[in-house]
Amino acid sequence: MEPIQYIIEIATSDFETTKSAVEGGADRIELCANLAEGGTTPSYGTIIQCREAFTVHLFPIIRPRGGDFLYTEEEYSIMLKEVKLCKQLGCDGVVIGLLNRDGSADIKRTAALVEAAYPLGVTFHRAFDRCSNPFEALEQLVEIGCERILTSGQKPAAPDGVELIAELNRVSDGRIVIMPGSGVRKENIKMLAEKTGCTEFHSSLRGKEKSKMDFIHPSFIDSEESYMNNSIDKEEVRALRIFLQ
């Protein structure tokens, strides 16, 4: 029996964290800005720089703002432009998620984004965890051609939603990838794999590191915003795969 081929996706927040994730062996990057807000669309320059530097699969998130996933027509127009731009820049896919007021997936506009992205892959992100009926949303996302759902099982963290993730994976029956994410760490990734049967996993492994500035202004010595930068430990990325064995 051949060993299971696991895929590790890392959510990154800039070029440096992407570099660390790639060096740690990530199979795919969900490229974001503002991870503290759940991730928003990265800048044009960041996408280009990452695409030129790395051959790993690159999936920018297409999210014009933080907050909820109920978007205006103007915001949707922004998302459509950004999907087309990612295709022009040679990305491998995009990550999207739109909801209606009643908590159903906004399938009409999601389908249009999937069509605009083609042949790029499309992941529907954790807006899915705010859906009123996850099994109905799953069937709709399969029908319109999404290739993947990122989910924590409608709980704040995947280990708490493991039962629903397992059921979603069973129902999906290979028609769409179910990818656990949120709170995925080396300590629980093996449990998640065994209990859900999933083979793709998403983690941000968010950390902070001190600025390399020599001069620290005394008025801002305790300011994390001024003198702490986002970081990813490449060894923690590598450990995710090791702990799956």
Describe what you observe in this structure:
The chain is an alpha/beta fold. The protein has a single domain (7-244), classed as TIM Barrel, CATH 3.20.20.380. It contains nine helices and ten strands. It has helices at residues 15-23, 44-53, 73-88, 107-117, 134-144, 162-172, 189-196, 224-227, 234-244; strands at residues 7-12, 28-31, 57-60, 93-96, 121-124, 148-151, 177-180, 200-203, 207-210, 228-231. The strands form three sheets. The chain has a four-stranded parallel β-sheet with strand order 3-2-1-8, with helices on one face. A four-stranded parallel β-sheet has the order 4-5-6-7, with helices on one face. Strand 5 (121-124), helix 5 and strand 6 form a beta-alpha-beta unit.
Brief account:
The chain has one domain: Copper homeostasis (CutC) domain (TIM Barrel). The protein has 9 helices and 10 strands. The chain has helices spanning 15-23, 44-53, 73-88, 107-117, 134-144, 162-172, 189-196, 224-227, 234-244; strands at residues 7-12, 28-31, 57-60, 93-96, 121-124, 148-151, 177-180, 200-203, 207-210, 228-231.
